Automatic annotation (TrEMBL):
Belongs to the acyl-CoA dehydrogenase family. This is Acyl-CoA dehydrogenase. The lineage of its organism: Bacteria, Pseudomonadati, Pseudomonadota, Alphaproteobacteria, Hyphomicrobiales. Residues 7-135 form the Acyl-CoA dehydrogenase/oxidase N-terminal domain. Keywords: FAD, Flavoprotein, Oxidoreductase. GO terms for cellular component: cytoplasm. One of its GO terms (molecular function) is flavin adenine dinucleotide binding. InterPro entries: Acyl-CoA_dehydrogenase, Acyl-CoA_Oxase/DH_mid-dom, Acyl-CoA_Oxase/DH_mid-dom_sf, AcylCo_DH-like_C, AcylCo_DH/oxidase_C, AcylCoA_DH/ox_N, AcylCoA_DH/ox_N_sf, AcylCoA_DH/oxidase_NM_dom_sf.
Length: 407
């Protein structure tokens, strides 16, 4: 593996760092102020659209989408490989608003990749195009309150054929992004044939957000944060009718798509998590240098140096593991790289949560307040040990695949 970033990546990282300094970091307090003053928390602060316009102008847009492995199609994007995108995504992770500003945020990135890889010409025209343009947003609905959804075979939401339509009935929760008024399309995973073999019972289907029968029950909180205006919704689907053409790839092929979708989604979360950890560490070091306790700068205390050293080593280890997974995805494909992807999905959120926790401690009580971003950073990093599958499931996969290598 070559440790040197490609010229394209170096150039984009430089441009992006400039964009972060000139646009994103100054926009963070504006975003917070606009959210605080908003009468309706479920409307997007205007500053995000300003940042998006500026990002487009600077050629920093849709950097996440690799060229289709079969057709080579990049859908008008830069077609960066996963390895080329990794350092860019890390920089984006430094700010909670950066990914959306450059149209590289979850769950849209995963959904766009699904439309690009598995969507029909109609899906591409109707959903992929406006998503790539940043005109609409989307959500992904797999998890259900009634069943252990880390085993997606349990998903009960029914997708039943009826004449030239499919009818959807069920209850989902943790549908992230559903609170955003610009969320216009849902990719839903449900059961189309309960009698088929276990991994052929599920399908993925495209549901326009404004279809009659979709009802938000409540917005869920994460450690007390509502995550507005993005949000995580519990949703009832009551006789939701969509045309037959809404099915993705074909009936019974939901797991096949999930494998394709969740790989890139997971690696993006991990790349951003490294950016979060880097920013927390930078903040903690600056804070420790600025404060004196017991006649000594906090940064000069032995225990601080030990913590900082451990964090430096852990972040660098995490980055190397992520780069290796990205490289494996590019070289061998998402399916072949699944052990590497599972490894980072366990390792990185654990490291980033631990790093943010120690940085929060170094800030004293301010660390748990709203004054610094560490409390929300911690809350978010902690959720990554559950979102897109809990640690235990990925650890099990890594172990199983490792043991299978030997007789
Ligand atoms: C912030 C956030 C955003 C999310 N966004 C989305 C989204 O946009 N769309 C969506 O569909 N879902 C989303 N999710 C849901 C997430 O993917 C699920 O919560 C996750 O897959 C686990 O499913 P579950 O909550 O049903 O846990 P369960 O399946 O009930 O599992 C509970 C626990 O059991 C243990 N366990 C499970 N399996 C094993 C095993 N094989 N070995 C050992 N222990 C095991 C683990 O400790 C696990 O945490 C989101 C979750 C969060 C927190």
């Amino acid at each position: 593996m070559d440790f040197e970033y490609s010229d394209r990546t170096k150039e984009l990282v430089e441009k992006l760092n400039k964009f972060m300094d000139e646009v994103i970091y100054p926009a963070e307090p504006v975003y917070e102020e606009q959210m605080e003053k908003a009468k309706d928390r479920w409307q997007l602060p205007k500053v995000i659209e300003d940042c998006k316009a500026e990002a487009k102008k600077r050629g920093l847009w849709n950097m996440f989408l690799p060229a289709d492995p079969d057709s080579g199609d990049t859908h008008g994007t830069m077609g960066l490989s996963n390895l080329e995108y990794a350092p860019i995504c890390e920089v984006l992770g430094r700010s909670a608003i950066a990914s959306e500003a450059v149209n590289c945020s979850a769950p849209d990135t995963g959904n766009m990749e699904v439309f690009a890889r598995y969507g029909s010409a109609e899906h591409k025209e109707k959903w992929l195009k406006p998503l790539l343009n940043g005109e609409i947003r989307s959500c992904f609905a797999m998890t259900e309150p009634a069943v252990a959804s880390s085993d997606a075979r349990n998903v009960e939401c029914r997708i039943e054929a009826d004449g030239d339509s499919y009818v959807i009935n069920g209850r989902k929760w943790w549908s992230s992004g559903m609170g955003d008024p610009r969320c216009k399309v849902i990719i839903l995973m449900g059961k189309s044939d309960p009698n088929a073999p276990a991994y052929r019972q599920q399908s993925m289907i495209v549901v326009p957000r404004d279809t009659p029968g979709i009802k938000i029950v409540k917005m869920l909180h994460v450690f007390g944060y509502d995550d507005a205006p993005h949000g995580h919704a519990e949703v009832i689907y009551d006789n939701v009718r969509v045309p037959k053409s809404a099915i993705l790839l074909g009936e019974g092929r939901g797991f096949e798509i999930a494998q394709g979708r969740l790989g890139p989604g997971r690696i993006h979360h991990c790349m951003r998590a490294i950016g979060v950890a880097e920013r927390a560490l930078e903040m903690a070091i600056k804070r420790a240098k600025s404060r004196v306790a017991f006649g000594q700068r906090i940064s000069e205390m032995g225990v601080t140096k030990a913590h900082v050293a451990d964090m430096r080593m852990e972040i660098d280890m995490a980055r190397l593991l992520v780069l290796k997974a990205a490289w494996a995805m590019d070289k061998y494909g998402n399916k072949e790289a699944r052990q590497q992807i599972a490894m980072i999905k366990v390792a990185v959120p654990n490291i980033s949560s631990k790093v943010v926790d120690r940085c929060l401690q170094l800030h004293g009580a301010g660390g748990v307040s709203q004054v610094f971003k560490l409390a929300s950073m911690y809350a978010h990093q902690r959720t990554l040990r559950l979102a897109d599958g809990p640690d235990e499931v990925h650890r099990d996969q890594v172990g199983r695949m490792e043991i299978a290598k030997y007789n």
